[in-house]
Structure formats: structure tokens, C-alpha cells
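Regression test case RT-17, inverse folding.

Input:
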């Protein structure tokens, strides 16, 4: 990891210190993804087979998971893992149900009623990564709020394994949330299939889920094309830890490594006002890294990660808000006191006993979160992500008499005669 002292960096060096690894290769990624999307749009299922063979080493005769495969998955998953997924799903449901958006109605003038009604999005597409590590937890994070929203149809794509099957735990997690249509497709090609549709995969109204830089770029391209809406940019994982002198170095190191092991393009940052903490965390990272089964992947991520010494915790929060991390851990003695200083973060973890891994799996909050600075304007997945909020208005004769003149004045100011006439005719009829 690179050690930096923030106050010794000029503006350019500070910007460089906060650059994500994927930002350096963005142009190349865009071109590759655009080619994959074009191939799927033109070639449909045949293109999906060719691309899947090229990247995943298999070319399944059918992409959709069969009932026999679901049944085999149920037998393959241990009772312990199944129960853990059931418990996690229950907490995710509890958290998301408490924050569900409610419709409302209000009379804005006598005889004028304005409302907002909540409707589920019709067909949604969920992406569950399974590249170097399958993520059944993501199936829960996406499936539970989709189920609570009442979406009519839910489609899920997850990359095939080397034998052409889908990960059994992902299939069981999908079924636990009521998802019955799963396709063995990964990468940008899966996003293209769910956005535009093929003979096998139905086109979806909105796409959800995290992924690598190619998946994230594919989501953004299909959204820009108007093919499907997306939840947010949710790419390579990242964590920023703000620690004080009282933080436990082993805890901080473990949190940094838990994100670094996601992939070589992940990024982890430590901000602290205590020089000794930098030394201790760096040593703890080196010691723990040697014990990890994914040490090689984590080491690649650590090469673009930073240990940053700041003059004060106030500086740390200013830097954090500028970076807008996906995950923010406050390893502070009184973390809740500092929470008001957080303006931009996907999810915040308070104190020494709240590792980011709890949010990844089973605390109840959602782990599908904005990355690459998108937390400045985007929020994590919620039930509202799977809903449309539709405004409704109604006016009686008395209502248009009460507010019609306001509309006429504004219409005249904008030079829109037909607008004015539409109101005038009704005012005359109501008189």
C-alpha cells in the first residue's frame, strides 16, 4: 500500500491519490463493452453462446436454469448455509420493509386533489456476480426488495461455472426471494441480453446489481441508449476507513483486506490523524494478507490503495466526502458524534465492532451500493428502486375556478396559447 501525507501533496497529487484504478482504463473498457453489446443486439442467443464460450469456457445449449437444476441446487447447499441465507433474508426484509415508500394525497386548493401512488416496475433484471467468487448474498440483496415491491416478473443473470451450471447457493438464494427465472449468463453480455432481449432472455425495464468495470459500463451504456433504466453505477468494490489513535489495527487491516480480496480493481483507503496507526495497520495488513486464500487478488488491489496521514479528523471527513466511498468505516472512539460530517457515502459502519462484512451479508442493509464517487448523488438499492412513483391530480369545477387563473397567467407568460385555452374553456364551463 502507498503511504502518503495529505498536507505534503499538491492539488494534482491529491487528485491522483483519490483516483480509482478503473478510471485509468475507462476508454478501453467503453470500447470493449460497446462491441459486446452490439454483438448481442445483432446476434441474439447465438452471439451470447459465442461470447460465453470465449469468456467463461462453456457454451450452454440453453441459458435458462431448469427445474431439475434448481432441485439439484437445493440438495447441494448445506443446511447450515441455507439457514444462514434464510436468517439474512429475514433481516434484509425487516430493514427494507420499514423504509418502504408510501403513497399520499393532499388538497392543494379547494376542489384540487394531488396524489402520489406507488406501483411496482413490471419486469426487472438482476445481475449477480459469480466470477472469481459467487455472491449468493447479492441475490438476497436484490431479490428481497424486488419481492417487497411486488414486481410482476423478476429475471436474474449469473455467470456459469466451468461445468456450465449456475452456482447452487445463488439458485437457492434466488428461490428464497421468489425469483424463478435464472439465466446462466455473465458480464456485459448478460446486461445486453436483459436490456434488449433475445429469443431466450426477456427484455427488462430496469437492471440492478454490482459487477466489474465491464458490467458497470454495460449498464451505463444501455441506460444512455434508453433500452433499460439502471439502479446506479455499482462497480469494483471500495472501502474508506477513518481511524483514530484508539482504533484496533487488526480490525482496520481486516476491513481493508475484506474489500481488497473482491478483485484486483478494488480499492481501499485509510485516513488517520495518527502516524503510529499507519505503521500498525500496515504491519497488520502484511501479516493478515499472508493468511488469505485470495492473497494474490488482494495484493493487486493493495497496489492501488492508500494509507493517508491527515492533520485532523476534520480533514479526513472532507477527503472522504470528496471521494464519496461505497463503504465508509468510522473506527473512532465516538463514531456517532462524527456521523453528521458524512455527506457522501454508500453505507456507513460505526465503531470497532461493525465490520463492513456485516453489511455485505446479514445486518439488514443493502450491499448494492454506488461506487466510483457516485455516492455523491446515488443511494443504495431499496424497495423504492423497484417502484415507480406516479403523480395523480383531480380538479372539480370549483377547483379549476380556484386555480385556473394562475395557470392562464403562467401559460401566457410562456407563450403557450393552447395551454391557456385548455384552462379557459373549462373555467367558462364551470362558471
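Golden output:
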Amino acid at each position: 500500500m502507498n503511504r502518503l501525507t495529505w498536507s505534503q501533496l499538491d492539488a494534482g497529487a491529491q487528485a491522483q491519490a483519490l483516483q480509482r484504478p478503473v478510471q485509468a482504463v475507462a476508454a478501453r473498457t467503453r470500447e470493449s463493452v460497446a462491441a459486446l453489446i452490439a454483438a448481442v443486439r445483432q446476434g441474439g442467443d447465438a452471439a451470447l453462446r459465442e461470447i460465453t464460450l470465449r469468456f467463461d469456457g462453456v457454451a450452454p445449449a440453453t441459458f435458462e436454469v431448469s427445474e431439475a437444476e434448481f432441485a439439484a441446487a437445493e440438495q447441494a447447499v448445506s443446511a447450515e448455509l441455507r439457514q444462514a441465507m434464510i436468517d439474512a433474508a429475514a433481516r434484509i426484509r425487516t430493514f427494507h420493509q420499514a423504509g418502504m415508500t408510501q403513497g399520499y394525497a393532499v388538497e392543494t386548493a379547494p376542489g384540487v386533489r394531488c396524489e402520489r401512488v406507488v406501483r411496482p416496475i413490471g419486469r426487472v433484471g438482476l445481475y449477480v456476480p459469480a466470477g472469481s467468487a459467487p455472491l449468493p448474498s447479492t441475490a438476497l440483496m436484490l431479490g428481497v426488495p424486488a419481492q417487497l415491491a411486488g414486481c410482476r416478473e423478476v429475471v436474474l443473470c449469473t455467470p456459469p461455472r466451468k461445468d456450465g451450471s449456475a452456482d447452487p447457493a445463488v439458485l437457492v438464494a434466488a428461490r428464497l426471494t421468489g425469483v424463478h427465472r435464472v439465466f446462466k449468463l455473465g458480464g456485459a453480455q448478460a446486461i445486453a441480453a436483459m436490456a434488449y432481449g433475445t429469443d431466450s432472455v426477456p427484455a427488462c425495464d430496469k437492471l440492478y446489481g454490482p459487477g466489474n468495470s465491464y458490467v458497470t459500463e454495460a449498464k451505463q451504456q444501455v441506460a444512455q441508449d434508453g433500452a433499460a433504466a439502471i439502479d446506479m453505477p455499482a462497480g469494483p468494490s471500495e472501502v474508506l476507513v477513518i481511524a483514530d489513535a484508539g482504533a484496533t489495527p487488526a480490525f482496520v487491516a481486516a476491513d481493508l483486506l475484506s474489500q481488497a480480496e473482491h478483485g484486483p480493481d478494488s480499492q481501499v483507503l485509510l485516513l488517520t490523524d495518527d502516524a503510529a496507526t499507519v505503521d500498525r495497520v500496515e504491519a497488520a495488513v502484511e501479516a493478515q494478507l499472508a493468511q488469505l486464500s485470495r492473497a494474490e487478488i488482494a495484493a493487486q488491489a493493495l497496489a492501488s490503495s492508500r494509507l493517508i496521514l491527515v492533520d485532523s479528523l476534520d480533514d479526513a471527513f472532507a477527503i472522504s466526502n470528496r471521494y464519496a466511498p461505497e463503504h465508509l468505516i468510522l473506527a473512532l472512539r465516538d463514531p456517532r458524534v462524527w456521523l453528521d460530517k458524512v455527506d457522501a457515502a454508500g453505507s456507513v459502519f460505526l465503531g470497532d465492532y461493525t465490520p463492513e462484512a456485516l453489511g455485505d451479508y446479514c445486518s439488514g442493509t443493502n450491499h448494492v451500493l454506488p461506487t466510483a464517487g457516485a455516492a455523491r448523488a446515488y443511494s443504495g438499492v431499496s424497495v423504492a428502486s423497484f417502484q415507480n412513483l406516479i403523480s395523480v391530480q383531480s380538479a372539480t369545477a370549483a377547483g379549476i375556478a380556484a386555480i385556473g387563473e394562475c395557470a392562464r397567467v403562467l401559460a401566457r407568460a410562456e407563450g403557450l396559447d393552447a395551454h391557456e385555452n385548455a384552462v379557459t374553456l373549462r373555467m367558462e364551463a364551470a362558471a
